[in-house]
Design brief:
The protein has eight helices and five strands; from the N terminus they run βββαββααααααα. The protein is 46% helix and 18% strand. It has a five-stranded mixed barrel with strand order 1-2-3-5-4. The chain is α+β, with helices and mostly antiparallel strands. The chain is globular, with a radius of gyration of 18 Å.
Length: 213
């Protein structure tokens, strides 16, 4: 099984890329948003979800461990396969996906191509009040506790990671105040959606206001 690749972007297609690792080209399926951030000839680190079937062996690649973890989590929902999971990640991005899951927002899930009202409702119902996926812990810096992912200037994920870190700090503060994790995550998601880019103090105030409703 393959968990991660580090190499050179050799070729970029409509739904996949070839990553050259020491002279071996790995064909990796990727979402449109991830492919758009690739540069041919650039060094890249790709987090891999490996699918092995009787008649196929497929690699799905992501520019952060957090994205890969959500890709795997989405497919635990009946009716969501790899293509639908990629479509949801492409349509929402990992931050908005986490907010949609915490808030049970069917309308947000419905933005994804191929996700109809029934599936969107099922996603909202089954993912609400559940903590985000922990993912894998890599020595290079992925924090399981903060679900912060890995980033570089090349992937352009710095702002996303900062937003996620602020949300996790808000959740931590609410937990310390005695709120249950499901309540804390729902309130933190509502706060970050209402005020993107706000600092932690402002997010905590907004979250507390949400909890007081």
């Amino acid at each position: 099984m393959i968990g991660k690749l580090r190499g050179i972007v050799d070729a970029i297609g409509e739904s996949e890329a070839v990553i050259d690792v020491n002279g071996v080209g790995y064909l990796v399926g990727m979402g449109g948003q991830a492919l758009a951030r690739l540069t041919q000839g650039a060094e890249i680190e790709v987090h891999i979800e490996t699918y092995v079937r009787e008649d196929s062996f497929r690699l799905w690649g992501f520019l952060s461990e957090r994205e890969r973890a959500w890709f795997a989590r989405l497919q635990l929902i009946q009716g969501v396969g790899a293509k639908a999971a990629l479509a949801i990640l492409d349509a929402l991005g990992v931050d908005e996906l986490e907010s949609a899951a915490a808030l049970g927002d069917a309308a947000a899930f419905g933005k994804a191509k191929g996700v109809g009202p029934k599936l969107a409702a099922r996603l909202a119902l089954e993912m609400k009040d559940k903590p985000p996926p922990a993912g894998r812990a890599f020595a290079s810096g992925f924090s399981v506790a903060a679900h912060a992912g890995l980033a570089s200037a090349q992937t352009g994920e710095t702002s996303s990671l900062s937003s996620n870190a602020a949300r996790e700090e808000t959740v931590s503060a609410l937990l310390n105040l005695g709120y249950a994790e499901t309540e804390a995550r729902r309130a933190a998601a509502a706060a970050t959606r209402a005020s993107p880019g706000a600092d932690i103090a402002a997010l905590i105030r907004l979250a507390l206001k949400e909890l007081s409703k």
